[in-house]
Amino acid sequence: MGSPAERLLERGPATGAVPVRSARRNAGPPQDRSRRQVPRFVWALPPVALLSLFFLYPLFLVVQQSVRPDTGGTSLEPYSDVFASEAFREALGTTVWLAVGATVGCLVLGFALALIIAFVPFPGGKAVSKFIDVFLSFPSFLITLALLFIYGTKGMANGVWTDATGAAEGPFQFLTTPWGVLLAEITYFTPFVMRPLLAAFSQMDTAQIEVASSLGAKPARIVRRVILPEALPALAAGGSLVLVMCLNEFGIVLFTGAKGVTTLPMLVYSKAILESDYPAACVVAVVNIAISVGLYGLYRVVSRRVGA
User: Fold this and answer.
1) Could you give the maximum distance between any two Cα atoms of the chain, in Å?
2) How confident is the model at residue 20, as a pLDDT?
3) d(CA 88, CA 51)
4) In whole numbers, what is the pLDDT of the chain averaged over residues?
5) pLDDT in tens, 200-212
6) Using H for helix, E for strand and C for coil, what is the string for 39-86?
7) Are 156 and 150 in contact (CB under 8 A)?
8) Measured between alpha carbons, how far is 240 from 293 in angstroms, rounded to an integer?
9) Is the distance from CB of 172 to CB of 284 less than 8 angstroms?
10) How far is CA 204 from each of CA 207, 228, 234, 296, rounded to the nearest angstrom?
11) Cα(123)–Cα(41) distance, rounded to whole angstroms?
């Protein structure tokens, strides 16, 4: 006869019965069922809401105020008035040439310093590399104050000169000129170019440099033919970042006290705080934002082409 279990095995599964493994497979894990019930877009709602509340809504208010003149209603009159003013055109030109000049200076100086730190062994090289990371956290006005202590009208350099020569004032008066602003921006923003360059140099295969050197290539040729092509993506990234930051820099221009140097951020400050002309201030702010976003878009296109 056999045991009940043996008889059950001989008969096979009853009609309509579902095997245990098949039932478990069809049921699926409980966690998967709960995940399927929540649409994916729901998880994106909290960050989108925060972004809209703290960034997009204030930006919308700025754009809205830029088309509402003091006379009331909605009009593009504030744009026509600002674009026709000589102060705006001068501020735009000053902003562009300072940003481009500072970016070029940062690229040249940052590339040279990064080459030395990465490929020229010297005592304290690692400490200098670590200091660059710390330097990036410094506020821009701190560097400007340091330059004022050294090259300002009452700074150390002028003090040493007047004490030694008995002159009424020292020869270093450039810090309150556009060239002083340019020097301060290059000093502050150069590490922003060096950081991606040092990261790129640390991943380079030094065998290529050794082979080129063994074949008799001079250092300048090695830099031009071997190192520079590898550094182009990092240069594009650092240069575009510096350009956008220089276009929006406010603290350096304010703390240098440069006479006759008015950039777009300074013009926004002047229109809003000193003149209480909020539509004009918002117009200049919208222009500044448009330039920054356009440059960022250009950076994305360039970075894709150079492989950044």
Assistant:
1) 126
2) 47
3) 31
4) 82
5) 888 887 787 888 8
6) CHHHHHHHHHHHHHHHHHHHHHHHHHHHCCCCCCCCCCHHHHHHHHCH
7) yes
8) 11
9) no
10) 9, 11, 12, 27
11) 54
Q: Please state, in angstroms and as integers, the Cα–Cα distance from residue 36 to each residue in 24, 26, 31, following that order.
A: 18, 15, 9
Mean pLDDT, to the nearest integer, of 290-298?
A: 86
The answer to whether domain 86-306 has CATH 1.10.3720.10 is yes
pLDDT of residue 23: 47
Q: Does residue 92 register a pLDDT over 60?
A: yes
* In the block, residue with structure tokens 């006479």: 259
Cα separation, 113 vs 165, whole angstroms:
35
pLDDT for the residue numbered 99: 94
Q: Angle CA(300)–CA(55)–CA(79) in degrees, nearest 5?
A: 80
Q: What is the pTM of this model?
A: 0.76
Average pLDDT over residues 150-176: 84
Q: Which of 247, 291, 112 is nearest to 193 (CA)?
A: 112
Instruction: Using alpha carbons only, give the angle 139, 143, 148 rounded to the nearest 5 degrees.
Output: 140
Cβ proximity of 134 and 194 under 8 Å: no
Give the integer Cα–Cα distance in Å for 246 and 254: 13
- Continuous H helices in the chain: 4-11, 20-27, 30-37, 40-51, 57-66, 77-84, 86-119, 125-135, 140-151, 156-165, 178-202, 206-214, 219-222, 228-247, 251-256, 264-269, 278-306
* Domain extents in the chain: 86-306
What is the predicted pLDDT for the residue at 9? 46
DSSP helix/strand/coil, 267: helix
What pLDDT is stored for residue 88 in this prediction? 93
Integer Cα distance of 266 and 272 in angstroms: 10
